[in-house]
């Protein structure tokens, strides 16, 4: 039987994913020196509220609070031994929220990068990366995640390791990389290289795309390249709510709900199938995005000039 995400994609032209995890938890009081993932254990009511807010705002899919839930990242908090506890608990709470929603809502088990550099440039071996991702994937599966959601990856090697871990866990998965203003990841991977990599994998993702990076306009430029690649696999766009800036010592994003509503419709018109937000995206942004997607008619594929005009321009020197 197909997984819930594939079933929804077969029925719908687009799906809306959730918004930010870390920045929303910071707004709830998460200290900057505490890993968000540990709040699954220490502040479960607030994590449930984060999940519920996303669903109430109209998300068809939301991520578990487990982005940094691998052994390498948790080791920085002295919690490498808590991988299973953190991930299983985060997924189980999400499962409860999704099941109580009264509609089909996909629980996406969130897996972020290890934070280490793979050989030959670094010391992380393929086998070690697979083992870390697999440990996390099994715990997310046991907690009730429908799919694995691998995001913010920067190297082809780490992407391959995550794909192998998903295969070992017998879980469907989605994969995203994060691209900078030059249209490359910090390890130099281009959108064209990611599109080609996805099709070479023995265990390809259900959908792939881009998340985070810089602003929403820059992310949509990358998405245009995915569409131009001719790859028929569903595309994901999860852009930041504008550009961050410090205000009274706190980090704020300048993308308003109205701008993110425009971003969502531009993404849909580009052909993106799964549309969400990343850093700075609040439930207010999500509600505006959902309303716009449901009420504004689909339009022709937007040009780079239109994307720049509606979203405030590009951040990179190559922008329009």
From TrEMBL:
Cofactors demanded by this protein: Zn(2+)
Residue span, Hcy-binding domain: 3-293
SUPFAM superfamilies: Homocysteine S-methyltransferase (SSF82282)
InterPro entries, sorted: HCY_dom, HCY_dom_sf
BP GO terms, sorted: methylation
Binding-site residues, Zn(2+): 212, 278-279
UniProt-listed Enzyme Commission number(s): 2.1.1.5
Signal peptide: none
MF term (GO), any: metal ion binding
The protein's enzyme class: transferase
Top-level taxon: Bacteria
Keywords assigned: Metal-binding, Methyltransferase, Transferase, Zinc
Protein name, per record: Betaine--homocysteine S-methyltransferase
Primary gene name: bmt
């Amino acid at each position: 039987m197909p997984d819930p995400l594939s079933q929804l994609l077969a029925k719908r032209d687009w799906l809306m994913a959730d918004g930010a995890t870390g920045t929303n938890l910071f707004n709830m009081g998460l200290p900057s020196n505490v890993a968000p993932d540990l709040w699954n254990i220490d502040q479960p009511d607030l994590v449930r509220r984060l999940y519920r807010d996303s669903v109430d705002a109209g998300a068809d899919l939301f991520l578990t609070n487990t982005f940094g839930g691998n052994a390498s990242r948790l080791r920085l908090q002295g919690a490498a031994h808590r991988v299973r506890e953190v991930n299983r608990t985060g997924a189980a709470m999400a499962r409860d929220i999704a099941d109580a929603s009264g509609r089909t809502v996909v629980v996406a088990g969130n897996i972020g990068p290890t934070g280490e550099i793979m050989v030959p440039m670094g010391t992380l071996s393929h086998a070690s990366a697979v083992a870390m991702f697999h440990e996390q994937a099994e715990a997310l599966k046991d907690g009730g995640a429908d799919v694995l959601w691998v995001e913010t990856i920067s190297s082809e090697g780490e992407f391959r390791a995550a794909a192998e871990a998903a295969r070992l866990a017998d879980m469907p998965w989605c994969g995203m990389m994060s691209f900078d203003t030059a249209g490359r990841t910090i390890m130099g991977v281009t959108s064209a290289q990611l599109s080609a990599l996805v099709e070479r994998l023995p265990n390809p993702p259900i959908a792939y795309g881009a998340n985070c990076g810089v602003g929403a306009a820059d992310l949509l430029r990358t998405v245009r390249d995915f569409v131009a690649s001719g790859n028929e696999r569903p595309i994901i766009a999860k852009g930041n709510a504008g550009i961050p800036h410090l205000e009274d010592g706190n980090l704020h994003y300048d993308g308003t709900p109205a701008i993110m509503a425009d971003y969502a419709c531009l993404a849909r018109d580009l052909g993106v199938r799964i549309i969400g937000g990343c850093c700075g995206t609040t439930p207010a942004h999500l509600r505006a995005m959902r309303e716009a997607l449901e009420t504004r008619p689909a339009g022709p594929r937007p040009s780079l000039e239109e994307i720049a005009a509606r979203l405030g321009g590009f951040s990179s020197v190559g922008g329009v």
